[in-house]
Amino acid sequence: MQTWEAITSRRNVRSFTDQPIAAEDLHRILEAGRRAPSSRNLQPWDFVVVTDGTQLQELAQVWVGAGHVAGAQTAIALIVGPAEGPGHRDEFDLGQATMAMMVTAADTGIGSAHSAVGDQDLARRLLGLPADHTCAYLISLGYPADRPLAPIVRPDRRAFDEVVHWAHW
Amino acid sequence: MQTWEAITSRRNVRSFTDQPIAAEDLHRILEAGRRAPSSRNLQPWDFVVVTDGTQLQELAQVWVGAGHVAGAQTAIALIVGPAEGPGHRDEFDLGQATMAMMVTAADTGIGSAHSAVGDQDLARRLLGLPADHTCAYLISLGYPADRPLAPIVRPDRRAFDEVVHWAHW
Q1: pTM of the predicted structure, to 2 decimals
Q2: For residue B77, pLDDT beyond 90
Q3: How far is A20 from chain B (nearest CA, A)?
C-alpha cells in the first residue's frame, strides 16, 4: 500500500473479525516499533505480544477503556522500566513507536486501537513483568469487524486552517 | 512510495540541502499531523510553520539540541496549551503526531529531525504564542545534505528478540 493510503486509512478499530494475523505481518508491525526513534536512542520500551484468547480477555480488565483487547487477535503491551529521570521522554517516544506500529498495521488492512492501563498489579501479573516495570499502553490488533480500512475523506478533526498557523500564532 | 519503504527509510536528518519543500508536500505532512489520533480526540496541538531563514536561525537558539533548525527549509513548531490535567496525554499524543508527519515526509524523500525546547520565553516571542502556551517540540524538514533517504537494513537499535517478548516477559 502507498504510505498516504495507510496514513489516511488508519482509524481506531475496536471490534475485530476472527481472522488471525499472519506471523509475517505481526513481525513487521513489531519491527516498525523497534525502529521508532527515541530520545538519545534510549529505546525505553519492551513489547509483550499476547495472542491467547484467555490472556487477552484477562488483559482487557486492566482499564475501563481496554475492553477492545478482549476481542483482538493480538495485543502488544508496551512496557517501560523504572520511573523516568531528567531528559527522559518515555511518553513522547511511546507515542512515536505506537504510531509507527499502527500505520504499519493499516498498511496490510489490520485495524488497531490503543488503551491506557489502570490496574498495574493485574497487568504485571498477567504479563509476568518485573516489579519495577509498568505496562504503559496496550495496542489491540485485528481485522475490522465493521468494514475494511479505506482512506478517510473527512476525518473527525479540527479544521486544517484552525490547527496550522503560518510563521506566527 | 510504499509504506514499508517510508517507515524503514525515515532517519534523523540534521543537515539539509537548499532545495525548498513544495507546498503540496508540506500540506500533506501537516495534514498527517492533523489526522493523528489523540486521547479522547482532544487534538491538543497547534502547528506553527516557519520557512523564513532568519526566523529559523533564531528559533535554533531555543535549545542546545535545536541547531539543525537553522539549516532546515521548514520547521514545524508543535504548540500545546495550558498545563495538562488528569486524563490528558499530550506527550504521547504529540509523539503520535510527530511520527505521522515524519513518515509522511520520508514518503517524498524529505528528511526530518525533532528537538525539544528549553527557552520557552524565546520560543513564545519568536512564534507570537499566547503566554499560557508552550512550544513542546520543533520538527526540522528538508532534503538530506548527506545522501537520499533509503531503507535502512541494519538500524542502530536493540535486537528484535531482546525487545519483543512472547506472551510473558
Answers
A1: 0.96
A2: yes
A3: 16
